[in-house]
Amino acid sequence: MLRSALAVIFAMALPLASAAEEIPLDPNELSVQDASGKNIAVFSVKQLQAEFPQQTYDTRTPWTSDGEKIEYRGPLLINVLAKAGITAAQEVKVVAYDNFVSDIRMDEIRSYNPILAVERRCNAKDKAGSLCPPGQDFRPISMVEKGPIFIVWPFDQLPASYVPGRNSIWVFFPVILRAAR
How many helices, marked H, and strands, marked E, lie in the chain? Predict the structure, then answer.
């Protein structure tokens, strides 16, 4: 039993170690790579805001309470992949700044339209503090809040089996999107 558990841990550690060698130093940038790991596009948070139409989702996440919703804003993941020429892949490997790796199927991306959230709506506490000056509706997502980039899905449109079964598709601070072979 112990031998089997160690084999599983070792098998999982290898992909993470190889991914870790390629992790960019800036969590404010997202690299899109082909299946060989070659960068074909790099987008900063500012580019994700300026170069793509912005989508908003007022949604729960697997980690919010039942009645709690947060309004996130950012470009559709499929649009970012399309601009980089990654639409024929069957799957996208997402690598996060903290070495977390998730495989997301393109059929999921096309069916549920996740966004690369780069902002969240200002709440009363943000406005009372210094996070949102008067007239500002959205603000950057901090790393404590799973940013500066967070893959957000429309929670209520996902199949019930996705929570907790596919919680790994909600990737905090992704830095690499790699087309899978």
Answer: 6, 11
ω into 53 cis (within 30 of 0): no
- The values of phi and psi at residue 37, to 5°, are 95, 5
**Residues with Cβ within 8 Å of residue 117, at least 6 apart in sequence:** 57, 72, 73, 74, 141, 147, 149, 150, 151, 152
Sign of the CA dihedral 45, 47, 50, 56? negative
- Dihedral of CA atoms 73, 74, 77, 78 in degrees, nearest 10, equals 100
How far, in Å, CA of 55 to CA of 104, rounded?
20
Structure confidence by residue, pLDDT tens digits, 12-57: 444 444 444 456 579 999 999 999 999 999 999 999 999 999 999 9
- Give the number of domains in the chain: 1
Asked if 52 and 82 count as a contact pair (C-beta separation under 8 A), the reply is no
| Cα distance between residue 82 and residue 180, in whole Å | 15
Q: Distance of alpha carbon 64 from its chain centroid, rounded? A: 17
Spacing of C-alpha 10 from chain mean position: 26
pTM of the model: 0.86
Its domain, for residue 168, covers: 2-179
3-class secondary-structure state, position 165: helix
Q: Where are the beta strands (DSSP E) in the chain?
A: 29-33, 39-44, 55-59, 70-74, 91-96, 101-105, 115-117, 119-121, 138-140, 150-152, 174-179
